[in-house]
Write a structure and sequence with these properties.
Structural class: alpha+beta
Strand content: 25-35%
Oligomer: single chain
Number of domains: 3
Helix content: 25-40%
Shape: elongated
Largest sheet: 9 strands, mixed
Number of strands: 25
Distance between the termini: 127 Å
Length: 515
């Protein structure tokens, strides 16, 4: 944090001892300038490192792409609602179009909408004592499509929920005895970087491991090298202390490891924060790892401060033994950051300057406090809450809800508007008249093609030789001997006969030959 002797100190720095420069409180010297050290919530993370095993859905379907597109069920439900409103508005708008005897495109659209009535074809308004018949109406087609749109939307939301939450992670806590705790054997690694301009030369490395609390019967002091290997290396942000423990069991007492930095000539012991991470792996099985990491500083009253002084900076971490039943009873210790108790710190420039010029204040004490909360063991398992019977029941419930909603709307509409009760009959009559008109036009074209347009007068009569034929809509072709001769009419159209001339010749209508 101090610069070599120079004539001009960098920005946000001050001079001490006449020729040395130091950064203001909360800043450290890096790349020739003083930088402010700040922390945020993004610098913190915690996790077990235990992910779900791949399933058939995860290997076949692009689930990650689906999750990115649909971030929540609300997106699917909103899309369903929008599509439903657009469809209903379209069906309402089509009804304002002209029918034009069934020749307009609006009538054809309305007719095909009525053909889509698949859900409510027999559930329309019927008068008493009438035979139940399959009635496909425009209103029924509209609500049938709307029912299926709502069902597909709800089903999509259900599938999204199943994909996102296929299993429920169940945590069970049970009391632990000595054999249970001895079965937890993990490899630990703790790294902490002191954010400063110091180096490992300022470090006075730890040499003891303290277990238990002073004054209690379980208080013990052990050589650190018996249990833990430590190493220090320099980084661009400051010296990093690394502590490693291989094949460590879970003791039932608290652990304390302390180290400190001291002043060196032209390199005082100052720091602005700490960057740490602690990982744990099951011994001999390093596929899964639990961890916790973050950054620490002392922003008391939102004022940047510099750590320096005799008081301890205590970093408290709790360890929880966790037994993953679904992963072949993986025994992993989960570290959790509990608290940080800042030690001596300085927030004013003049006080920091006085401390740097004093030979007695140059020290930074740091203590790692590890508490093993091992009275209980957390057992973690995955339970599948989506069985085939439950899934089918959910689908049936969604369909029943969709069907009931629009069936109720259908009954209300047909009950309040009498015009809608017999709308299918009106549309069928229009369709029948239109079909009859097309068939009649085909017959006219056939006659014109067979005998020529000159033989067809304006009154629907066909001139052929000495006989005349009248085109009748209901009874087909009728031949008259002459216009003055009376015509015999029967009550039944099938008994109408063609009058012949004197020679009683029969005219073949198809080819015009005599026989």
């Amino acid at each position: 944090m101090a610069a070599a002797a120079a004539k001009v100190c960098p920005e946000n720095a001050f001079r001490y001892n006449g020729s040395l420069c130091a950064c203001n409180p909360g800043m450290f010297f890096s790349n020739g300038s003083c930088s402010l050290f700040a922390t945020s919530e993004k610098d913190w993370s915690i996790g077990s490192g235990v992910t779900s095993t791949p399933t058939f859905l995860t290997t076949v379907l692009p689930l990650e792409s689906i999750r990115r597109i649909t971030q929540s069920q609300a997106v699917l439900l909103e899309a369903t609602l929008v599509a439903l409103v657009i469809w209903l508005l379209f069906c309402v708008g089509v009804r304002f179009g002209r029918v034009d005897g069934g020749r307009s495109v609006w009538f054809r659209i309305r007719w095909w909408i009525s053909r889509l009535d698949v859900s409510f074809a027999t559930n329309h308004w019927l008068d008493d004592c009438q035979v139940v018949q399959k009635r496909q109406t425009e209103l029924g087609g509209t609500f049938s499509v709307a029912c299926w749109m709502l069902f597909v939307g709800l089903l999509s939301a259900l599938l999204y929920q199943i994909i996102a939450k296929r299993n429920i992670e169940v945590h069970r806590v049970r009391p632990a005895n000595a054999p249970d705790l001895l079965a937890f054997v993990n490899d630990f690694e703790f790294n902490i970087t002191t954010i400063s301009s110091m180096t490992c030369s300022n470090l006075r490395s730890p040499d003891t491991l303290v277990t238990g609390l002073p004054g209690f019967v379980d208080y013990r002091v052990f050589p650190l090298s018996t249990y833990i290997n430590y190493h220090c290396y320099n980084t661009s942000m400051g010296p990093t202390v690394s502590l490693r423990c291989s094949n460590c069991q879970v003791p039932r007492r608290d652990h304390f490891i302390s180290w400190h930095f001291v002043d060196l000539p032209n390199n005082p012991a100052t720091a602005v924060g700490f960057l740490f991470n602690l990982t744990a792996k099951e011994h001999g099985y390093g596929k899964y790892m639990s961890y916790v990491n973050g950054t620490l500083n002392s922003n008391s009253d939102n004022k940047p401060q510099t750590f320096r002084g005799p008081d301890l900076n205590i970093l408290k971490i709790h360890l929880f033994p966790q037994n993953y039943i679904r992963l072949h009873k993986l025994k992993l210790i989960q570290p959790l950051f509990h608290d940080f108790i800042p030690g001596s710190s300085i927030a004013e420039v003049n006080k920091l300057q006085s401390s740097l010029q004093s030979p007695n204040g140059g020290i930074i004490n740091t203590t790692l406090y590890i508490s093993y909360l091992a009275d209980y063991v957390v057992e973690i398992d995955k339970e599948n809450n989506n069985g085939p019977v439950g899934f089918l029941a959910d689908i049936g419930g969604l369909y029943s809800i969709s069907l009931a909603i629009f069936l109720y709307l259908l009954w209300q509409c047909e009950g309040r508007f009498k015009k809608l009760r017999y709308e299918d009959s009106v549309m069928r009559e229009i369709k029948s008249r239109r079909r009859a008109q097309r068939n009649w036009n085909k017959l006219r074209k056939f006659v014109m093609y067979t005998w020529g347009p000159s033989n067809l007068d304006g009154n629907g009569m066909i001139n052929k030789g000495k006989g005349k034929f009248r085109l009748d809509y209901s009874c087909g072709i009728e031949s008259l001997h002459n216009r003055e001769q009376p015509r015999r009419k029967d009550t039944n159209c099938s008994n109408k006969m063609v009058d012949f001339n004197v020679e009683t010749r029969i005219l073949d209508i198809k080819d015009g030959s005599e026989r």
